[in-house]
Amino acid sequence: MSKYYVKGLPWSCGIGKDVQDCVTTEEVMKKSGLDFQVDKCELVARMPFSIKKADELKLDTKAGDFVHGNAVYRDCPAAYATYRTDYNIPLGIVKSKYTVVQNEDAFKFFDDVIKCGQAEWQTAGMFGFGQKIFVSAKLPNTIKVGNDPIDNYLVFSNNHDGSGSVNILFTPVRVFCTNCLAAARRNADAFIRIRHTQSVKEKLDIGAQIIAAAIQQSNSVAEMYNYLNGIKMTDKDVAKYICELNLTDAERLAAIDYTKNESTAFSRIIARDYPTLEAAKISTRKANAIAGMYDYYMNGIAQRDIAGTAWGAYNAITGYYCNVSNMEGEKRMDSILYGHTATVFSEALNSALAYAS
């Protein structure tokens, strides 16, 4: 029995609605509260002014200039905002070429795939007032790494605040502990990004190709993970793997110089030996993370059966970030799928594969 617990999928932890019973995009949007429309409007600048200089304002009322309270309002040239048309809530500032992609349009291409049983809707939701929305779908092919089942998901996200593209992400998830895993040696290989331009709607009409590519990707992922599962690693190897993944070259070399031995340096860092940390200028926060990852390798959820392998070492990293790190909600989902944590997962996978080779 592990002392850790499963936090769950990053897109299903109280931030979305279960839409597994839905068949069409329209049903998904309605059940999850995403059935709203977004439009683009011109921006108006609100500027304070002095009553004493009111006669110097040179208001152009025909252009829409007006005064209200202690401020003057004028159109802001070539500046736009997106907003929800149901409540007139502003969502973000965008450029003139920005094309709004309605929620239903962003995911409607997936309807035929769902009807054919090639995938099933899982969760849908939004952050804020709809600045970002997301939908997840589970693919039908579960892969095996030894006795480890891995489910495969597609996560779709659409931004209405101008901060990003329409993203389609393929991500494998280890079933026993819901660890999200890197799907490729380079994180970008698991993404399809479509910018909000005039051609965005045409580019979204590629549902069949996306599913075919995702299934093909899952087959190569299975081969890669099983390769890691066959590579043996000692506890000292794992300590080195975790330390090198987290330390800068300067920190690593300073620790080795202080202890006069690489293996001793890494074991002392994991033990959070203060003189070693001080000599190498390793922060307490970083030392705690390294110690936590190594402890997860030894005692984490479903780690016992894969300890002693490169697969177990890699899952010590993913398990720590998915089930131990204190990130929650939108921050957790963004980091694990698209941000810093996703980059760490990709680096950890590359390091494990490099060790194996």
Task: Provide key terms for this protein.
single chain; 357 residues; alpha+beta; 3 domains; 8-stranded antiparallel sheet; 4-stranded antiparallel sheet; 13 helices; 39% helix; globular
Summarize the structure.
This protein is an alpha+beta fold.
Task: Walk me through the structure.
This protein is of the alpha+beta class. The chain folds into 3 domains: 26-35 and 101-220, no CATH class; 38-84, no CATH class; 229-356, no CATH class. Helix content is 39%, strand content 23%. The chain has 13 helices and 12 strands. Strands 1, 6, 7, 8, 9, 10, 11 and 12 form an 8-stranded antiparallel β-sheet that branches. α10 crosses α11 (310-323). The longest helix is centred in the middle third of the chain and has 23 residues, at 207-229. It is globular and about 80 Å long. The two termini are 33 Å apart. The model has no long low-confidence stretch (mean pLDDT 88).
